[in-house]
Every structure is written in C-alpha cells, then in structure tokens.
Amino acid sequence: MGISNQTLPSWFILLGLSTVPHLQVLGFLVFLVMYIITLAGNCLLLITVRISLALHTPMYFFLSNLSFIDICFSSTIVPVILINTLSTDKSISVGGCVFQMFFSLILGAAECILLAVMAYDRFVAVCRPLHYSSIMNMRFCTVLVLIPWIVGFIDSCIQVSLTWTLPFCRTHHVNHFICEMPPFLRLSCRDPQLNETVMYVAAGIIVLCSFVLTLISYIFILTAILKIRSSQGRRAVFSTCTSHLTVIALYYGTIMSIYLQPPSSHSLERQKIVSILYTVVTPMLNPIIYSIRNKDVKKCIIMNIKKTCKTV
Predict the structure, then answer these.
(1) Does some domain include residue 3?
(2) Beta-bridge partner residues of 292
C-alpha cells in the first residue's frame, strides 16, 4: 500500500462517542459486556459445531465461518473503543488506523458475501433436497467460503490504498470511534471524489449483489414453501430460514445506510450509531439468534453441557 508521507500525520485522535465522563464509564461497561457476550456466544457456537457430529453439515460449516468472522470483526473494533473510552490519550497511530481499516473492510465484505452464500445453501436445501449432498459437497463449500475472503481482501487493498494516498491536512481529530473510511474522506484537503466513487462502486458490487442474490434465493425458497400443502410442513421448512433472514435484515440494513448513501444525506452522529450496530451489536446477536431459534444447536449445546457435567 503506497502511503504518501508528505501531508500524512503520524497519528490521529479518535473523538469517540461522548466526552461526558459518566457517559464514558457507562459506554465502557456496555461495550465490555457486549464484547464478552460476542466472544462467549460465537466461541460456544464454534465449539458446539466442532464437537457435535450432528452439526457437521454445510449449513453449520458456513455458520462456523460466520462466527469466526464475527469474533475477528469485533476484536478488530471493540478493544480500540474500550481503550479510547476511558483513556485520556485518544490518539491512534497511522499504522494502527491502517490495520483497523484494512481488516474491518475485509471482514465486513466477507460477512456480507457469506450471508449470500448461506442463502444459496438454504435454496439448495429447500428447492433441491434430493441433490443437496451432491451439490453442497465439501470441495464446493470450501470454495464458497474462500470467495468472501478473496473478494474482501481485494476490495480492502484497493480502498485502503486510495484512502491513505489522500493528503490529510485539515485536522488530526476524527469524529468517530474507529478508523472508518467515510469520516477520513472528510479530513482530506483534496477532493475525495475518486475515493467516494470507488467506495460506492465497491459497496454497490459487494453489498447490492450479495443482497440481490440473497433475495433471489429466498424468492425461490418462498415459492417452494408455498407449494407445500401441509401448514405444519411449511412452518417447519420456513423455521430453518428465519434465523438467517433476521441476521440479513440486521446486517444489510445497517451497512447499506453507511456505504450506499452520499455523505450529505446523513450526519456523523447518525453514522456512528449505525456503525455500532453492524460492528458491535450484530456480531453479538448473530450467535444468540442462531442458537435461540435453532432446535438442533440448542439440543447439541444442552447435550454437551450434560456430558461435561457428568465428566466433572
């Protein structure tokens, strides 16, 4: 990544969410609890899928990868928030900022595409049940899991390289709690039109294409469900998709509101709130949603807990 040192400061100051002391303490506790829940929930899901033979299926293989992404995504963002919330020194080095921006873009894009992959898996399971095992074989599933990472890596390399060639001469103060592209584009003393165009094109390709592919998959799924004569059968099939639909609504809705709207259409304060939703809240809720609404996962968790208790 080519970074120009001519007008690039050696550090930035992340202003965070609030400057009010008691709100900072409250924010620290809230984010700490959310981070602990995120790590505990996703690790529990990963371990459960790993040790339960009944969950060694493509659906849970993708779900495990989603949990891994959520752990990494949250760990890239939340520790910086926790440190900056209580610390008097809210500065972050350029290297730290580049690192956070680079990996958060990879993980954000990977999660977006993986949700579309999971929708395709549900489409094959519902609409092609007799051919499911032959279509969703291990080799094909591995390729489907690698695609989000490859696309995310390419997107991040392009976006971060372009962002850090901008001259930042207006201020060192970033009105955000993380190193995210939109607020940094506002700091540039050069017109960031090229960066904004690339950001919207990349978001359009990744987010909208993933969303459209997900939507198409669920149109076919819904059509197949409506053909089932038994109402109980329809509920049983649809219940396997509700968790995924909930996660899709949370993630796509929040990320679209940041990367697919022009900067003039929303305030930085609103942008910070939306960023919290998809970087902190969604990784915490994903394992909860999949565990609570999934009978197989709940059953395996209970069985593993009982086995552990008997061993102890």
Answers:
(1) no
(2) none
154 falls within a domain: yes
Residue 304 lies in a domain: yes
Q: Answer yes or no: is pLDDT of 264 > 60.
A: no
Burial class of residue 157 in the structure, from the number of CB atoms within 10 Å of its CB (0-12 exposed, 13-18 middle, 19+ buried): middle
As for how many domains the chain has, the answer is 1
Q: What is the pLDDT of residues 85-144, one digit of tens each?
A: 877 778 888 888 889 999 999 999 999 999 999 999 999 998 998 999 999 999 999 999
CATH classification of the domain holding 37: 1.20.1070.10
User: Model confidence over 192-220: pLDDT tens digits?
Assistant: 888 888 888 888 888 888 989 998 998 99
pTM to 2 decimals?
0.86
Q: How wide is the angle at C-alpha 78 spanned by C-alphas 51 and 182, nearest 5°? A: 120
Its domain, for residue 114, covers: 11-311
Q: Using N-to-C axis directions, what is the helix angle for 58-86 and 282-292, rounded to 10°?
A: 140
Instruction: Please check whether residue 236 lies inside any domain of the structure.
Output: yes
Q: What are phi and psi of 140, to 5 degrees?
A: -65, -40
- The DSSP code sequence of 244-298 is HHHHHHHHHHHHHHHHTS-GGGS-HHHHHHHHHIIIIIHHHHHHHHHHHT-HHHH
Q: Which residues contact 150 (CB under 8 A, 6 or more apart)?
A: none
Beta-strand pair 173-174/11-14? parallel
pLDDT for 303: 78
Mean pLDDT of the chain: 83
Q: Write the DSSP symbol of residue 204.
A: I
Average pLDDT over residues 72-85: 90
Spatial separation of the C-alpha atoms in residues 123 and 181, rounded to whole Å: 34
